[in-house]
Structure formats: C-alpha cells, structure tokens
Amino acid sequence: MPPAKFLAFDFGAESGRTLLGILDKDRIRLEEIHRFPNTQLNVSGHIHWDVSYLFGELKKGLTCAAQQGHRKLSGLGVDTWGVDFGLVGKDDRILGNPYAYRDRRTEGMMEKAFRLMSKKEFYSLTGIQFMQFNSVFQLLSMLETEGHLGDNIATLLFMPDLFNFLLTGKKCSEYTIASTSQLLNAKTRGWEPEIFEKLGLPLRIMAEIIPPGTLVGRLKPDIVRETNVFSVDVVAPACHDTASAVAAVPAQSGRWAYLSSGTWSLLGVEVDEPVIDEHSRINNFTNEGGVDGKIRFLRNTMGLWLLQRCLKSWELMGDALEYDELAGLALEAQPFKSVVDPDDHTFLNPPDMPAAIRKFCRKTGQPAPIKKGEFVRCILESLALKYRFLLDKINAICSDPVEVLHIVGGGSQNEVLNQFSSDATGLPVIAGPVEAAAVGNVMVQAISKDVLSGIEEGRKMVSRSFPLKNYEPEDQERWDDIYGRVKGMFS
C-alpha cells in the first residue's frame, strides 16, 4: 500500500507553515513545504489579521506541494489560534479583515458582560477561562461600538472555519475551535442560547458545529486549477492548534500533563467530562474541546511572548539577537534575581516589554533586570515557577496527581526552559515533538480516513517517529524555597 500523504496548514500568531505528513508503515514523517510570517495590520488604531494575504500563502503552500511532486493528497486540514473570527455577508463575501485578539477594543467588555450575566453563571455554563479577548467579549465590543451587529452579517466563522469556507464554500464551526469562544455550553457542546439572549448577541449568525475529523467538502475547482493539485478532501482536524498539539502528545501511560509551549503556554490534563466547580472557577481554569470526546482542562498562561517582545524591542534599538544566543545569556545571569507573574495585565501588549518587566519588578520590591541575560533568565524562571503554580492547582482540583509533564510545540526546543520546568515542578519532563500542532492535524485527518485506528495508535506512532528529550529535576530544594517565597504573586 503506498504511503498516505496529508497536508497540514498550521497558522500561528507569529508565523504560518504548510507541512506534509507522510504515514508509511509505522512512522509519521513531516516535510516542510512552505513557511511564512504572520504579521498583524494596524489600521486606524486597531489590530487586524490580513486574511487575503494568509489565504494567498495557504494557496502558495498548495502550489509548492504540487511543484514538489505531491499533487495527489489523501486530505488537507487547517488549524489556527483560538477566539478570533471573520464575518461573512449574505453574498458570501468576507466583511473586512478579522480583528486580532490583542486589539484593545475589548477592554472593559468583561465588566459590561457581567452586568448582564453574572460571572458565576457564565462559568457554570461554559467552563471557560475568563480572558478579555474571548470571542464573546469581542462580539460584545462590536455591539457596544456599532450599536448592532448588522443585518448584512450572515455567518460568524472562526479563523480555521473561515479558511475552510474559502477552500470549499462550506460554512461550519469545528468543535475544538468553537469551544474557545466562551459561547459554547461545555456539557451539551452546543451554542448556549442564554448567553446570546442576555448579552443581546444574534444566535442566527453562528454556524453548525461539527466534530474534529469531519469531512468539510472538496477543494474548490478554481483552487485546484490555480494550484495544480488534484481534487482533494478538506478535513476539519482539531482546528484549534492547541487541540491538535495535545492530540500529538506521545503519552503512553500514567497520569500526565501537557504543556503546549509557544507564544502562549497552555498547561493542563485530558479529562472525560468538563470540570466545572467552585475551585476551577476561582482558579480560572478552562474546559476546551479535545479529540476523541475528551476535554482539555487547562489554564492559558502567557508564554514566550514576553521573550519575543523583548527581542523585538532590542532589535528596534539596533541590537538584534538570535534565539540560540539566549540560552548562554540566561545561564550566565544571576539565578532568581527577580521573578514576574507572566499573566500580569501589563504584559499583554506593552509597547516596550523590557520596560514593563522593570516596572513590575520595581513595583514588587525586586531588583529590576539590566542586562539582556538577566531579562531572559527572569522570563524563563518565572514561566517555570508559574507552571509549578498551575500544576499545584490541577493536582488540588483533579483526583490523580500528575506524574510526568509533556512539553510540545516550538517552545519544546528551549532546553533551558525545559530544564527549569522540570526543576520547578519536580517532575520528569519529556520534550517533543516540535511541530506538534501539525502532527496532530495530520493524525486526525489520518483517523478520519481510516489510515489510523484512533488516537492511541497515533500517539504510539508519534513516540516512534520524532526525537524526544528527557529532563529530570535538579536542585529541587532551592527551587522549592524560591517558589515558597514568590507563589503569592501569581494569580
């Protein structure tokens, strides 16, 4: 039987990529076909995604696949970041560029929403972590600023659903991406009418929800002609990139937690049913959709964004650094000079991240970093200590204590952070695969096409196919001491 080939389009907030997944015998092999930057547009003081550019790069990925000899595919699938969406008019035209979640238009929207529906009621229905950029608050901001969500709007489509629509002409919302919106009932797994009614939002614009692994439709004939690939099925994988990444966690046994490490850090466990109680609400944990009927019980915490923005600030000052220089700088710096809460609101999108970090340190009575290595070490140590804080909360809420931490995604290449994470949590860490979202995307497509029997077989194949690196905790007494002193600043 010839190898099965699946194309995965993995869009992140910083970059996008087209990867070819080849399943041959008992291995998955990834080949990079196309990679491109994802740059936000600043238009009239608001931040948008350039959907025309991104769709053009998607088609370029198809063209590159054809040019590299991969015209015949078993399927293709798209995954992206969560919460953001585009609006489609009654004439099937996209109504402007989608807003980006870091746009400031949602400031104050949570408080407005809680005057219409209590925070406790919100959480009891959705089980979703409160963040000001969630889709529900984006919609409310449109209602507040425009006075209405116009009659010309036919359908709301989340980012991967929007690309699926452009590829096939079919409108639907895949479950894992829909679950990030805070508009879904966590238990029924359908849109929650009470939220729409109390906030005055139009339920009519929401698309039908489909499970991961659903065939959306065939690639449009005009795109087939333009890109020179053969006609192919477009499959909705786990369209939320984190759901795809978690699907690819190479866990074999025991009680494990996952950390999808990148611009954001998403740390949690898989459970069979939503965990919605007072403890999970107070600690702001989320219940997002997963693959194979699972729920991803997790906290979304700031990740390498702090480091990315420091690098950007230094670059603007004419002192650009490469990522491979950062490890040496961090290890040369003084340990535990200062610790920040990565989720402090001042770090969401400051114009100058190093200045924001210095300000936080001064506010909390700590020496502020000066040298670049001090900033890098502060960020990496703070992230690792925050992971310890969140794992402690998970162990308190869920019955079985976590025994091992799997780190997947681009951040799994940061060996210093991986070791710090093991040191801070006291857990063995297994790092890899790096392109976890694309691997999970390919896996779900393969399951939908009966190339794989299910998620268990897929995870076993991942563990055989990609290099994994193990870390064991070191210097635990010192990390325990530091954690005891700083955990009070974390929220």
Blueprint (SSEs and pairs):
Blueprint: E1 4-11, E2 15-24, E3 27-37, E4 41-43, E5 46-48, H1 51-67, E6 75-79, E7 85-89, H2 109-116, H3 119-126, H4 135-146, E8 153-158, H5 159-168, E9 173-174, H6 175-178, H7 193-199, E10 209-210, E11 214-218, H8 221-227, E12 233-236, H9 241-247, E13 256-261, E14 264-271, H10 278-282, E15 286-289, E16 295-302, H11 305-316, H12 323-332, H13 353-363, H14 372-397, E17 404-408, H15 415-425, E18 429-431, H16 436-448, H17 455-465, E19 469-471, H18 476-486
Parallel strand pairs: 1-6, 9-10, 13-17, 17-18
Antiparallel strand pairs: 1-2, 2-3, 4-5, 7-8, 11-12, 13-14, 14-16, 15-16, 18-19
Helix pairs in contact: 9-16, 12-14, 14-15
CATH homologous superfamily label of the largest domain: ATPase, nucleotide binding domain
User: Between the first and last Cα atoms, what is the distance in angstroms?
Assistant: 53 Å
CATH architecture of the largest domain: 2-Layer Sandwich
**General form:** globular
Number of strands: 19
- Enter the CATH topology name of the largest domain: Nucleotidyltransferase, domain 5
Low-confidence stretches: none
CATH class of the largest domain: Alpha Beta
Helical element count? 18
Number of separate structural domains: 2
Structural class: alpha+beta
Helix content: 25-40%
Taking all Cα atoms into account, the compactness measure Rg is 22 Å
The largest β sheet comes out as: 7 strands, mixed
Main-sheet strand order equals: 15-16-14-13-17-18-19
Strand content: 15-25%
- Average of the residue pLDDT scores: 95
